[in-house]
Amino acid sequence: MLEKHADDVKITEEVVKAAAGNGLKVIIQLLFEKRSNDIKITEEMVKAAAGNRSNEKTIIQLLLKKCNDDVKIIKKVVKAVVGN
């Protein structure tokens, strides 16, 4: 559905957090591929990815690669990652 209607779907922080938190690597990759310019990576997205046990490392890498310097790696984000 996203592939066919990418321009009609609003990509919010909650959508990316849900995908990251549920380990949906393919969805995140598709979102970045189709709507990269519309997605600003936030600390909450990184923390959601850290809370996922199945693909946390891969998803965090995808998010951090996309964000460049937009997300400051602060103590609580590192704790969330290390805690898992």
Structural notes for this entry:
This protein is mostly helical and 84 residues long. It has one domain (2-82). 62% of the residues lie in helices and 0% in strands. It has six helices and no strands. Helix 2 runs parallel beside helix 4, helix 4 (43-50) runs antiparallel to helix 5 and helix 4 runs parallel beside helix 6 (75-82). The longest helix has 12 residues, at 56-67. It is globular. The N and C termini lie far apart (32 Å). The mean pLDDT is 76.
List its salient traits:
about 80 residues, 6 helices, globular, about 60% helix, mainly alpha, single chain
Coarse structural class: mainly alpha
Number of domains: 1
Largest sheet report: none
Cα radius of gyration in angstroms: 12 Å
Indicate the low-confidence ranges by residue numbers.
none
Order of helices and strands: HHHHHH
**Shape label:** globular
- Total number of helices: 6
Average predicted confidence as pLDDT: 76
* Span of the ends, CA to CA: 32 Å
Strand percent estimate: under 5%
What is the tally of beta strands? Answer: 0
Fraction of residues in helix = 55-70%
